[in-house]
Amino acid sequence: TGGLLKLTSPKDTPHRQDSAYLLIFIMLLTLTILTIWLFKHRRFRFLHETGLAMIYGLLVGVILRYGIHVPQSMSDVVLECAVNASPATLLVNVSGRFYEYTLKGEVSRGKDHQVQDDEMLRKVTFDPEVFFNILLPPIIFHAGYSLKRRHFFRNIGSILAYAFIGTVISCFFIGLIMYGFVTFMKAVGQIGGDFFFTDCLFFGAIVSATDPVTVLAIFNELKVDVDLYALLFGESVLNDAVAIVLSSSIVAYQPAGDNSHSFEAMAVLKSFGVFLGVFSGSFSLGVATGVMTFTKLRDFPLLETGLFFLMSWSTFLLAEACGMTGVVAVLFCGITQAHYTYNNLSRESQDRTKQLFELLNFLAENFIFSYMGLTLFSFQSHVFNPMFIIGAFLAVFLGRAANIYPLSFLLNLGRRNKIGMNFQHVMMFAGLRGAMTFALSIRDTATYARQMMFSTTLLIVFFTVWICGGGTTPMLSFMSIPVGVDSDQEYSRRSTKHESAWPFRIWYTFDHNYLKPLLTHSGPPLTATLPACCGPLARCLTSPQAYENEGRLHDDDSDFILNDANVSSLYADVTVSTDASGSRTINPKPSAAGPFGENRDRELDLVEREVTIRGTRLVLPMDDPAEPPTTVTLPPPPSPPRSDPHRHRL
Amino acid sequence: TGGLLKLTSPKDTPHRQDSAYLLIFIMLLTLTILTIWLFKHRRFRFLHETGLAMIYGLLVGVILRYGIHVPQSMSDVVLECAVNASPATLLVNVSGRFYEYTLKGEVSRGKDHQVQDDEMLRKVTFDPEVFFNILLPPIIFHAGYSLKRRHFFRNIGSILAYAFIGTVISCFFIGLIMYGFVTFMKAVGQIGGDFFFTDCLFFGAIVSATDPVTVLAIFNELKVDVDLYALLFGESVLNDAVAIVLSSSIVAYQPAGDNSHSFEAMAVLKSFGVFLGVFSGSFSLGVATGVMTFTKLRDFPLLETGLFFLMSWSTFLLAEACGMTGVVAVLFCGITQAHYTYNNLSRESQDRTKQLFELLNFLAENFIFSYMGLTLFSFQSHVFNPMFIIGAFLAVFLGRAANIYPLSFLLNLGRRNKIGMNFQHVMMFAGLRGAMTFALSIRDTATYARQMMFSTTLLIVFFTVWICGGGTTPMLSFMSIPVGVDSDQEYSRRSTKHESAWPFRIWYTFDHNYLKPLLTHSGPPLTATLPACCGPLARCLTSPQAYENEGRLHDDDSDFILNDANVSSLYADVTVSTDASGSRTINPKPSAAGPFGENRDRELDLVEREVTIRGTRLVLPMDDPAEPPTTVTLPPPPSPPRSDPHRHRL
């Protein structure tokens, strides 16, 4: 029983080593947090926390690789058996006892590069599925949950164009350029293994997902234009989803014929079908789970928060179990929950869920970035091919350009509020590659092509995060993009141009009059918005709280009845008055509240106050979130510290 | 490359199945939360959430076992190779490519019971190390972090006696009884495998850890006597730690001689040494990490919370990596952090950390209990031996009695506030077995003896949680133990008897005058408490905030200078006046604030206000936590809604 005891004793060496390896990461994160604090304290903006986490990861990677030499354990036994398959589970018969082994993957003992199979490094480079199943979901969910929905939906057309059409363009553009490079390298004899066209396309898909977390943190701090922020954030959130579906469609198409890695029109169509099916399936699943509301648990915040957390996670798992993409599902689940479920939560649960996902996002993100740094040295099958790397950098640059400039030109034909050339340059520059690109490339490093892709991707991530991320502040001043813009005022000034877009208006009215009352306690009761013939149905679907709202709305709206024609003139007036006053004051928000805490509250408050009553639109821009909507009197007394021209207009 | 693609494609079947299995657990938790809400809403107290989670787990286990038949995958290949060892890693050479396999454990294909090796059931019964490394740490940390320290330290002597001496008595008592039973069963021929004396002792160790989570939830809701609560809670928290160290000491002793599973005085001494070493090592590690304070991050609650979380987790990992016990370390880390670090956190971080660990504890606990229910049917190597089960129930009952009654008798000789017979009966009855017992028994189910232990342990947990947990409310009324006792008043009334215990007083003064000022911002500055010769040292160790406190204290203490003699007369007066007034009002606390949220705040407030100034003790019992300590005026105006006799006395 000696062998058995060794396996199961709580203090056996492998277990202790695992703890030590995990401890390395925890220490890395701790170090990162302490340094971030120092940076924030000293207002040092050239290196974001993610870039910092990567540097620490790199340093520890160097130490692990060259500094520490753990004596090689002699436990590896090479079985030379007559098996012609590599099953997922293996039962080994050792003198009458059966031991179960699970497949971890292929160990490359290729002919061309010597592997120094170091057990420690192998263990530090742990299972990439961890990224997909544990680290990515909270990041993606948080992106959806903290989305500034108003700015997002105002630019929804452009965002969808960049995210869907742009990412597909970028993917194929990069794929084609890389295929040219690879063909050339094969002719020159610079490439040492198979590299098919599908591999090139796959590479294009994984490096097309942008992740401007660094840039957005700086934008948030400097209060850069909200539309630019919305375009970049929206694009990066959605193109993560697009890239993951795109790459898995390419992989799904790949094994059709083992030798036919060439281009086939039929197979591309099939891939496109897979893409559409998976994306729309994941989308509906996420929205469906998000829409499922729970309203009665308000008295027990702990239960409510727990349920909220479990529902979000089960969306991910359900999508994965159905063969769809959990990341996409969890993204739309987050957006839907922020829009509907959030209003039903008790105030304490609203805080708790926000803080919980903020923390999970923070930890997961920094973990991934410090892991990236570590991987550069701990991963043992790197293939650094200088020509491939140069080609990839060129392709990534051109692919981004092929996404941004032509699409912006086309979008500007339709947009009233044009995307200026300086905005386009910033979007081009802010195309950082981050967590999703890394996770997709480390997921499969079995073949030569994939190993080369992984090593190259790692360099692309490092370069973009350090150089592009660090250069954001100089870039903004070079492009003369104004900073210190107050999002609320900005919004009111611009709303005349945007929100009159009819698809947005129809959706907004439908959502506000029917969906919100049905799914939340806020908004007007359905009995007021539905036609009279649906009375009984409306009564049973409306929650008691909504009637309380109705009483208030009744009192207010008698004064406010305006028709749509008035609304546009009202907008025009507001614009004029703002410009005429000339003295647009910028309210500095307290920056201590973190990147998302305080702004988000305002965001929600403002969305609430943008009340539409029975088809009539009424905009009440208010700056003070503490003031409840019911206490509005006309005309309000001018508040001395702030010039507030919109309110005077009313 | 077909095989490779199958392994790595994101939509391959094993991955989807894993998601589905995890989804089962998430659904179980969701169901549990919804039912708990229903129970709380209807004030139904006979079944606690953990008992409920077990029932749901049982039901799903039955469905999985008998309802669903997944077609057996044919991927298992049995290799009949000439290996005479079972290494942790296996490299299999499949036609030139090397695949790495990791050992999962022994698959029992014993001769005596037919195994229907169902892959689904095997996967649902996942790696028991998950319990130790992921689920237990947050539960144990939360226990330490939410410990009501004042009541705990007041009864520290009795708690240590029950937890250390009591658990060791119980372990050996149960071990001896079981050894008798097993010897008898061997003689009768009722036992089908090896069962040594060390196995009996191991069984004694794992079933000696009590976990009265059910009972304490009811105690908290009914406001049962605070001393009884403190005794039960303190014992259960510490005996988890004792049991885990005890069981690993027994295992560490076991492999010394494979055939000498008999009793040896020398080996027992060695085990005892291991026990002491591991316990004190883990204890110091936990306290050391807890003491490490971070004070400058207050401006960034997200960073602060993140750091707090990472520090707690790294304590666990560090202890495991050093060959100590992470659970013990994390427990004392939690207690220390609640005592010192908590005071340094910003208010927002205090809320965030409390809520985070409350949520983690809630999820982990319910997960473990629903998993327990599931395991009864999904685990495939159960050995239910009726005689062993009867013996175990008897031994557990007698072992608990041998712990409680003799120790209470001895403790009552020294205690001024005796532990009454009704209290002893309740403590006897409340000896539930829960998460720790389960985790220890599932950790190793390789041998026949361990499998029989596991099955028996499962039944013991079910029985105690359902019967003893459900019977708590009737038991309390049967034993005529008063409910609805307000802990603050109770404390003031009793304090005269307890706190005069000199070790407690010395520790309290030392902690308050030197440790708290050194480690936190609260308490008097060191410049005031240290002798004059240490002036420069004191100045550099005291934080600026502490001087602000000093200013306030100076103003106040001129009126309040009392010496120790006065203090005891003050106590006596308070007691008399409380009793004389006769109208002890019980302030009903709002129960919506959850089991720990609101009470804890009060707890901390009260500890803060119990100010000791330069060796002089001063007790200011105040009920209103919103009132800051500086605003105390003498005599305070009587607050109309509450009778507050203590304040009038002053």
Structure notes:
Two copies of one chain form a homodimer. In chain A, the strands form two sheets. Chain A has a two-stranded antiparallel sheet. A two-stranded antiparallel sheet of chain A has the order 4-5. The first copy, chain A, contains 27 helices and five strands. Helices cover 67% and strands 4% of the residues of chain A. The first copy, chain A, is mainly alpha-helical and 650 residues long. In chain A, a hairpin with a 2-residue loop joins strand 2 and strand 3. Chain A is globular. The longest helix of chain A is centred in the N-terminal third of the chain and has 33 residues, at 156-188. Chain A has helices at residues 2-8, 13-42, 49-67, 119-124, 129-145, 149-154, 156-188, 197-206, 213-222, 226-253, 265-291, 301-321, 326-344, 347-378, 386-414, 421-429, 435-442, 448-470, 472-478, 487-498, 502-519, 526-529, 535-541, 544-560, 564-581, 597-609, 645-649, and strands spanning 77-79, 89-94, 97-107, 612-613, 616-617. Chain A folds into two domains: 13-124, no CATH class; 128-255 and 266-487, Na+/H+ antiporter like fold (Up-down Bundle), CATH 1.20.1530.20. Chains A and B meet through helix 1, helix 2, strand 1, strand 2 and strand 3 of A and helix 1, helix 2, strand 1, strand 2 and strand 3 of B. Strand 1 of chain A pairs parallel with strand 2 of chain B.
